[in-house]
Design brief:
- The protein has ten helices and two strands.
- It has about 180 residues and is mostly helical.
- The protein folds into two domains: about 70 residues, 434 Repressor (Amino-terminal Domain); about 70 residues, Orthogonal Bundle (Arc Repressor Mutant, subunit A).
- It has a two-stranded antiparallel sheet.
- The longest helix has 17 residues.
- The radius of gyration is 22 Å and the shape is elongated.
């Protein structure tokens, strides 16, 4: 067997990431592998879909398109979110799960990035019906959007907001 044939037998990191994404979406839809097979009228066999999800078998673009249609999502939602992602056990693998941002301080700042960030946070407040107005806690998925606004890597959002003195620090009580 040649080296290239051996490579075909080894699951690629990308196939594994695609598989993780496929499994995640299937589970979000509360479907088992058998459910997918039945509901797709055996268009997607449970054993084959399982192999895709484990990264043991590469999925073709036409099959990916059919699977996206079956799940009711776009093809890009079946692909890994960040092809350059760091493995979960390495430093910098994920953004902080929650950041508390001082919206009152933010509203006093000038500059396009601050105004854009303030509008984004106000939108979150409206969605959550949270009209406290002074502090908002953003979740990990919101941190991605903030990273884009600040033009920095996701794992730098917390330190950057801290450097800008925009993270909320509760006042200490004196006894």
């Amino acid at each position: 067997m040649s080296q290239s044939d051996e490579d075909l037998n080894e699951p690629s990191p990308f196939s594994r990431m695609v598989g993780e994404r496929l499994r995640s979406i299937r589970q979000q839809k509360n479907l088992s592998l058998s459910d997918v097979e039945l509901q797709s009228h055996e268009q997607f066999k449970a054993s084959v879909l399982g192999a895709y999800e484990r990264g043991e078998r590469a999925i073709s673009v036409p099959r990916l398109e059919k699977l996206a249609k079956f799940y009711g999502v776009t093809i890009d939602q079946l692909l890994p979110r960040d092809p350059m992602r760091v493995e979960d056990n390495q430093p910098g693998a994920s953004a902080p799960t929650k950041l508390r941002i001082d919206v009152a301080k933010l509203s006093m700042r000038d500059g396009l990035e601050f105004k854009m960030l303030e509008r984004f946070l106000r939108m979150i407040q409206v969605q959550r019906q949270d009209f406290n107005g002074k502090v908002i806690t953003v979740r990990a998925h919101d941190t991605r959007a903030i990273a884009v606004m600040l033009d920095i890597p996701i794992d730098q959002v917390g330190p950057r907001l801290a450097a800008l003195d925009l993270l909320f620090v509760p006042p200490t009580t004196q006894s």
